[in-house]
Amino acid sequence: MESEHTDNAGVAFHPPVLILFFIGVGFVGRWLMSAEFLPRAWAVAAGFPVVVISLVLFGWAVITMHREGASIPTGEPTDAIVANGPYRLSRNPIYLSMVILLLGIGLWANSGWFIVLAVLAIAFLTWGVIVREERYLGRKFGDSYYTYKKQVRRWL
Fold first, then answer.
1. How far is CA 83 from CA 76, 87, 118, 129, 144, in A?
2. pLDDT 10s digits, 18-50
3. Is the pTM of this model over 0.85?
């Protein structure tokens, strides 16, 4: 439970752990039941560029956070609202990159399991991380955060 005296978002879990868990679940699901949805020849051609896009977005977001002097781990205090780079397009480009990664792996592995898990990831990230971060940022930065929040969408 989040405390008013804690200077962090009090997230329910760490997002990379969730995504790694879902990747594992996706491959186990694929092994148990393939759930193919593309012609096999298209899978790599469709999945590889999506995985690359997710990694580029992730790298861009992390570099932008470091340049702005903001912390990335969810358990640390946030010292700045980052509104440059990919943060002009999405308030959560790192989480967006994680969902895109799941979709890309799903395309590449040609497994519908990953598509379902990407939808679940959006739900879990929204409930367990993003809503808590938004509440924390609102308390910490007040009007400057609310102005940013009105200008930039949560996901895309």
1. 19, 5, 25, 19, 11
2. 999 999 999 999 999 989 999 888 998 999 999
3. yes
